Amino acid sequence: MVELQDNITANKGKTTCDRNILLSIISLATKEISGVSELVDTPSIILKRMFKNRDSKGVKIYISPNGKVTVDVYIKVFSGVSVPDICFRVQENIRNNIASMVELKTGKINVHIVGVNFVKKNEEGV
């Protein structure tokens, strides 16, 4: 019988993630939640996107030196939904998607309700 010794340390290397990938993950995670009508730009996001192209529609992120991601999302919700429930589900979905897809730690996830849509998009054509 032969014994194998496993004393080899594997160098896993460095994985990088483009800022746009992170913005896409956050945007999609927000839109997945039922009750969220749309992501909305604020004036500061519009100006940043015009001059720096750094943020996605309705999403602002900040990555601290220790690697934690702070997220601000600006959304409109449909009327008749529970705002605290929507906010909690958006926060959890963003946190879970970031952790599972890019293995980053999340700091604060701020959900800003900018407005309420009274008509669902599939009913607008009526």
Please render the helix and strand layout as text:
Blueprint: H1 19-31, E1 36-39, H2 43-51, E2 59-63, E3 69-78, H3 83-101, E4 106-117
Parallel strand pairs: 3-4
Antiparallel strand pairs: 1-3, 2-3
For the record, give the distance between the C-alpha atoms at the N and C termini, rounded to a whole number.
Answer: 77 Å
Strand content: 15-25%
The gross shape turns out to be: globular
Broad structural category: alpha+beta
Mean pLDDT: 81
**SSE pattern:** HEHEEHE
Q: Major sheet: size, sense and barrel closure?
A: 4 strands, mixed
Alpha-carbon Rg, integer = 19 Å
The number of helical runs is 3
Helical content, roughly?
A: 25-40%
The number of strands is 4
Unreliable residue stretches: 1-7
Short description:
The protein has 126 residues and is an alpha+beta fold. The chain is built from three helices and four strands; from the N terminus they run αβαββαβ. Helix 1 packs antiparallel against helix 3 (83-101).
Please characterize this protein's 3D structure.
The chain has 126 residues and is of the alpha+beta class. Helix content is 33%, strand content 25%. It has helices at 19-31, 43-51, 83-101; strands at 36-39, 59-63, 69-78, 106-117. Strands 1, 2, 3 and 4 form a 4-stranded mixed β-sheet that branches. Strand 2 and strand 3 form a beta hairpin. Helix 1 packs antiparallel against helix 3 (83-101). The longest helix is centred in the C-terminal third of the chain and has 19 residues, at 83-101. Mean pLDDT is 81; it is low at 1-7.
